[in-house]
Automatic annotation (TrEMBL):
Disulphide bridges, residue numbers: C211-C228
Domain CUB intervals: 152-270
Swiss-Prot/TrEMBL keywords: Disulfide bond, Signal
Keyword Transmembrane: no
Top-level taxon of the source organism: Eukaryota
Pfam family, one: CUB_animal
PROSITE patterns reported in the protein's UniProt record: CUB, PROKAR_LIPOPROTEIN
Signal peptide annotation: 1-19
Protein name in the entry: CUB domain-containing protein
Entry-linked PANTHER family: CUB DOMAIN-CONTAINING PROTEIN, INTRAFLAGELLAR TRANSPORT PROTEIN 122 FAMILY PROTEIN-RELATED
Amino acid sequence: MHRLGLFAALALLVACAAGASLGPGDQHHRSKKMMRGPKRGLKHKVNVDDYLAAPSNVANQHVSFLPPQPVQRKQRSPYAKHNSVEHSVNPTRQSRFLSLFSVVRFENLECGAVSGDNGTCLAARECIERGGVASGPCAGGFGVCCVFIVTCGQTTYQNSTYFVNSGYPGPYDGTGSCQLTVHKRHPDICQLRLDFDQFMIGGPEIINHVCSNDQFIVSGGSPVPAICGTNTGNHMYVDAGAGYTSPVTLTFVTSGPAFPRNWKVRISQIPCQSNYKAEDGCMQYHTGVTGQIRSFNYDSGMGLQLSNQDYSICIRMERNFCGIQYTTAPDPVNNRSRSFSLSGQTTGQNQVTSMVGSVGPNSCNGDWIIIPCAANAGRAPSIEPTCTDRICGGTFNSEVSTVPATVFSTVKPFRIIYHTNNVEFPNDQSNRGFALNYVQQPCTNVMN
Ligand SMILES: [Ca+2]
């Protein structure tokens, strides 16, 4: 929260007396005040206590521009003798004076910067002190949209920080390790959300799809699998625990062949009580009635499914929705869709069958997704304990088939568990991972 105290207010008064121009917000308040203000030259006090009494932390409050509040004599503080300012001004000067002597408070909300990035609305001086870059106005011109961009070897405490590659916005094609240390801004931060605005590093090796060259590693928080390849537009959540804990470190290791790497990771600090905090245990968290989920390095053109993955993808159950259905996303690149290819030899043009469950000849024992009690749309849900859960193979279907299906589940909360082992060759080749579109299903009498 920013507060204009006595000194700032006096500075503004001087600026006003010198004929400094006012911003749109100032003019707005001035015109309102002029309509309400005294018509004659009266003597007014402005009590400094009123400004100093403003809370120093108004996070989670609404933006508030306090209208000018001339203090009545009978409200004078017993300390007014020492910290109040008394002025006698003529009618014209008085109107301006009162408008300037307002405490301007605004919450440090997220703002859209001129650069196109997301920033935090701060006073200009605070932005500089925190190491940010002002990028356009906010809060009606009283604040600046402060953007934090950091790179290798740095430390951040700021919400909405961008972690970029060395040489950004240009590419980086050297080898080494680029690490960022992330501290909580407050002890009531429980999670970090990492949005991969840009994420292009070397992919996995092509035999077993392990990220053994380039990789992105998160340490210090909840376990997160190492990832590599192209992940632009994807995200992950890291549980950072309650209270002040050890920092979370984000590391890009670039040890693979020369490659024009580029990354820009936005780091958001999620308060423990916020309504956008991910449910526990979710490394990915999607909201909305419809959306798309993709495994890391999913790319219908070149991307290979990553080995050694083991995490949960959660979809927030929206109000009045009781079920969820999944279909494979279109694959515009291949003449045979590979938007679900988890296991099997999918190099050729022959459709590879789906496999389900954990027992039997067509079961999933290496790589799979789990959709609890999955059933194909149009069929009654299975009854436990015969529910299908694991699905793998080269076709998305909750039954063994070479025809893709729409699969639904009514198990709450809505989650998919994704698991891959550390082996592909020779039984599994050219698998891409998955891109699934989901649509939540409204509650009905049979689905609740
Ligand atoms: Ca595997």
